[in-house]
Amino acid sequence: MLCWSGNVVLARAVAGEIPPIMLAQIRWIGASLLLTPFAWRYVRNDWPVIRKKLPLMLLLAFTGITIYNTLAYLGLQHTTALNGLLLQSAAPLVIGFWSLALFGDAMTPRQLAGTLISLLGVLIILTGGQPDILLSLDFNIGDILFFCALLFYGIYSAVLRKKPKMHWVSFLWVTVVFGAIMLLPAFFWELETSPPTELSWRSFAAFAYVILFASLMAYGCFNRGVELIGANRAGPFFHLMPLFGSLMAILFLEEQPALFHAIGYGLILLGVILAQRKSRLPVP
């Protein structure tokens, strides 16, 4: 979540400078190239499993890699980073919905309570402790696209429980490579229909961030985390993204900390901890 916290703000910052599908495509192609030397021996060992479970692997690659990030980047061309973070805070509830709809796995009362408490903390941080700001938000097509992206990511997170027994590095490589390949038609369409793009040092810095941190590190950690504790327990951790994002703004952008920050941080951490309080699961 620390690695993902800057992704929404970064994508909004380069909107109009880097076409959204190009940002997604370079993100996944770059991640594929960097990961291949480390993943190849694991992929070779796991290839019989990959081939046997190919439809499942394609579903995970499409929902979690191809469509989710592309729709999110498209949405951030038309909406604000604040709206994006507000919508992102619905991720735990979306994951809980798909876990229930697909597998009958309902959130426990403790998990639901923890999710709602941490969601309240998110809203306090994002509104600066002024709830009336929510009434003045203007939602548009960008918000719809971003929420659709969350629906696909909820499917990805819920279906991760069906991931075949294989090394986490080979799983990450397969989903990233398949996801990048499935995105190619949309990428070529964007190249044909968009004006030429002039890249700058900001563009290359954005590419480096989304490849190294928002892709390789974040997806590797999240996939392994869901494997260990399940989607419903992992969901509330999405509420740490606004916490980390506001901390970065205080540390690096010299924004002034306020009482509402402390209240929001406390509620988020309380909610996340509450959602995790259950009997220990066996670790694979």
Describe how the helices and strands are arranged:
Layout: H1 7-13, H2 20-52, H3 54-75, H4 81-88, H5 91-103, H6 109-127, H7 141-159, H8 168-193, H9 201-229, H10 231-234, H11 240-252, H12 259-276
Helix pairs in contact: 2-3, 2-8, 2-9, 3-7, 3-8, 4-7, 5-7, 6-12
Largest sheet, in brief, is: none
What is the number of helical segments per DSSP (H or I, 4+ residues)?
12
**Strand coverage percent:** under 5%
Q: Summarize the amount of helix as a percent range.
A: over 70%
Low-confidence stretches: 279-284
What is the number of independent domains?
1
Structural class: mainly alpha
- Molecular shape: globular
* Alpha carbon gap, first and last residue: 23 Å
Helix and strand pattern: HHHHHHHHHHHH
How many beta-strand elements? 0
Using only C-alpha atoms, the radius of gyration works out to: 19 Å
Average the pLDDT over all residues and give the rounded result. Answer: 86
Task: Give an overview in words.
The chain is an all-alpha fold. It has one domain. It is built from 12 helices and no strands. It is globular, with a radius of gyration of 19 Å.
Highlighted features:
284 residues; 74% helix; disordered C terminus
Write a brief caption for the model.
With 284 residues, the protein is mainly α.
